[in-house]
């Protein structure tokens, strides 16, 4: 028969053995989990590397676009760093809206004294309508949502369009500026004012966080090219009318 001391020693050995086996089991499980997680990270990294270079570059550029646009939105709300000049920036924004341009163009067209003045205003009215159509088509195709800061603005919920790309103000500013420089402006000081106005209207869209930088940049290029399209269409219409 075994003594009580030997029994206690055997029980302690059994407990220690079971404890060590459970610890080894836990360690094995932990090591297996860590290995599987590292394997998953390796798979994710390899999947990201296996993506086409064009996709990686595009995502990188969009990330830069998002970061720069967020930095420039200093007048997005009253609590923004430059929130005190927000009313002035919104006034500049309104100067590039389509409503005052259409109203002023139609008024000048109806009040024109000569055929040349009416022809210029008619071309501008057609250019504004063409700009509205093309911008709407591109926005519907791309469907890029506006920045979150713009969507949080109460007034923008009712008066600002849902989609962001391209900026309609930027296209209109570039097109109208080129139109004015080619048709009406003939002095150097007025040319500087027209170009400066187009730049301020485009900048206001970024300061108010209405658009991303790529929206405004593409809008300026698009508006500049629209003027050439309007010129060709007007020339063809005049040739058909007087042929």
Q: Could you walk me through the main structural features you see in this protein, from its secondary elements to its overall organization?
A:
This protein has 243 residues and is mostly helical. The protein has a domain at 83-145 and 161-242. It has ten helices and no strands. Helix 5 runs antiparallel to helix 8. The longest helix has 46 residues, at 4-49. The protein is globular and about 55 Å long.
Terminal-residue CA separation: 129 Å
Query: Total strand count, please?
Result: 0
Rg calc: 33 Å
Poorly predicted ranges? 4-47, 154-158
The overall pLDDT average reads 77
Query: What are the secondary-structure elements, in order, as H or E?
Result: HHHHHHHHHH
Number of helices: 10
Task: Give the overall shape, derived from the CA principal axes.
Answer: globular
Please summarize the sheet with the most strands. Answer: none
Instruction: Name the beta content range.
Output: under 5%
- The helix-and-strand class reads mainly alpha
Helical content band:
over 70%
Main location: endoplasmic reticulum
Protein name: Polyisoprenoid diphosphate/phosphate phosphohydrolase PLPP6
GO cellular component, one term: nuclear inner membrane
Keywords: Endoplasmic reticulum, Hydrolase, Lipid metabolism, Membrane, Nucleus, Transmembrane, Transmembrane helix
């Amino acid at each position: 028969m075994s003594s009580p001391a030997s029994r206690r020693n055997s029980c302690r050995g059994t407990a220690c053995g079971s404890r060590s086996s459970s610890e080894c089991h836990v360690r094995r499980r932990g090591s297996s989990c860590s290995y599987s997680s590292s394997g998953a990270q390796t798979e994710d990294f390899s999947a990201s590397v296996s993506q086409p270079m064009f996709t990686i570059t595009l995502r990188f550029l969009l990330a830069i676009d998002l970061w720069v646009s967020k930095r420039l939105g200093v007048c997005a709300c009253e609590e923004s760093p430059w929130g005190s000049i927000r009313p002035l920036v919104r006034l500049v924004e309104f100067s590039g809206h389509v409503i005052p341009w259409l109203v002023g163009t139609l008024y000048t067209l109806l009040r024109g004294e000569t055929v040349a003045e009416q022809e210029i205003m008619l071309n501008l009215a057609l250019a504004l309508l063409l700009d509205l159509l093309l911008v709407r088509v591109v926005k519907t195709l791309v469907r890029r949502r506006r920045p979150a800061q713009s969507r949080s603005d109460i007034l923008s919920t009712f008066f600002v369009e849902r989609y962001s790309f391209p900026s309609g103000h930027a296209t209109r500013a570039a097109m109208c500026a080129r139109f004015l420089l080619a048709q009406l402006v003939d002095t150097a000081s007025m040319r500087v004012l027209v170009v400066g106005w187009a730049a301020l209207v485009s900048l206001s869209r970024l300061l108010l966080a209405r658009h991303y930088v790529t929206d405004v940049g593409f809008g300026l290029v698009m508006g500049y090219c629209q003027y050439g399209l309007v010129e060709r269409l007007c020339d063809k219409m005049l040739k058909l009318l007087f042929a």
